[in-house]
Amino acid sequence: MKSKPLIHALLLLLFLSACTTNDPHQRAKTGAAIGAVVGAVAGHQMNDRSGKFVGAAVGALAGAAIGNYMDDQQREFEESLAEEQERHDVEIERLKDDTLKLSVNNEVSFAFDSADISPAFKPTLSKLARLLNKYNKTVVHIIGHTDNRGSNEYNETLSGRRADHVAFYLEDRGVPGARIRTEGRGESEPRATNATEAGRQLNRRVEIYVKPIVEGDEEAAYESPRY
Fold first, then answer.
1. Is pLDDT at 87 greater than 50 in this prediction?
2. Domains, the chain, ordered by start
3. Banded model confidence at residue 151, pLDDT cuts 50, 70, 90
4. Which of 207, 216, 213 has its CA nearest to residue 182?
5. 26 pLDDT band (50/70/90 cuts)?
6. In sequence order, what DSSP letters do the residues of the chain get, joined into one string?
7. 33-42, 62-71, 109-118, 141-150, range with the lowest pLDDT
8. Looking at residues 113-138, what average pLDDT do you find?
9. Distances (CA, A) of 146 to 82, 97, 201
10. Residue 182 pairs with which residues in a beta bridge?
11. In this predicted structure, what is the pLDDT of residue 97?
């Protein structure tokens, strides 16, 4: 009878999917809940004869395959986004746990005080969506940041809306909402001083973290990145 939790999780997943409307905002909101269920299903546990928990991951990565998989993905990101990197619109970084981090300059991605994606940034997101669909054993975290102008509440809301709009765009190009997490951190994590315009420009950004789903530790991919 150990399959009951898995069955219940799958039923919940189907219910959440059925409740999703054509509104992309609602899809994104529901996607976060679906993602939690997917993470639980993908990493559901079974007891072995010794009483230890054994991960029964489906589509997760293990051992040397993790590094190889993320190596290939990083190489394709860098090749596909070479022009954006040359213009300093996008920075790509490999973190210590094999997570890929893409930092996107808000000056090219959003108009001032707006969450609407700039037309010039959409081709970049389309490239990203194609690669995220190709390398689908990952969870994508989209985190918005602002400078310190305006209230904390306003900045947190704006940064969250920008992250959501990036998620909507990726979803519309086939990236499942269950793989996407969004978050607005406002002005709480500056990269540079807010005393100068150059510093404020660095602080206005969207960060995209691509975390591998690791067999036996699937839930870690769904945890909010903190580095």
1. yes
2. 4-55 (no CATH), 64-222 (3.30.1330.60)
3. very high
4. 207
5. very low
6. -TTHHHHHHHHHHHHHHHH--S-HHHHHHHHHHHHHHHHHHHT-EEE-TTS-EEE--SS-B-THHHHHHHHHHHHHHHHHTHHHHHTTSEEEEE-TTS-EEEEEEHHHHB-TT--SBPGGGHHHHHHHHHHHHHS-SEEEEEEEE--SSS-HHHHHHHHHHHHHHHHHHHHHTT--GGGEEEEE-TTSS-SS-SSSHHHHHHHSEEEEEEEE-BTT-GGGGGSPP--
7. 33-42
8. 96
9. 25, 26, 9
10. 142
11. 93
What are the tens digits of pLDDT across the range 214-224? 999 999 999 99
Tokens of 150: 């305006």
Closest by alpha carbon to 227, among 73, 77, 96, 71? 96
225 vs 107: CA distance, rounded Å: 24
Burial class (CB within 10 angstroms; exposed 0-12, middle 13-18, buried 19+) of 40:
buried
Terminal-to-terminal C-alpha distance of the chain: 40
Question: pLDDT higher for 100 or 40?
Answer: 100
Contacts of 163 (CB under 8 A, 6+ apart): 142, 143, 144, 182, 183, 184, 206
Task: Please tell me which residue, 211 or 10, carries the higher pLDDT value.
Answer: 211
* CA 104, 161, 110, 189 torsion-angle sign: negative
Q: Is 216 left (phi over 0), alpha (psi -120 to 50) or beta?
A: left
pLDDT tops 60 at residue 46: no
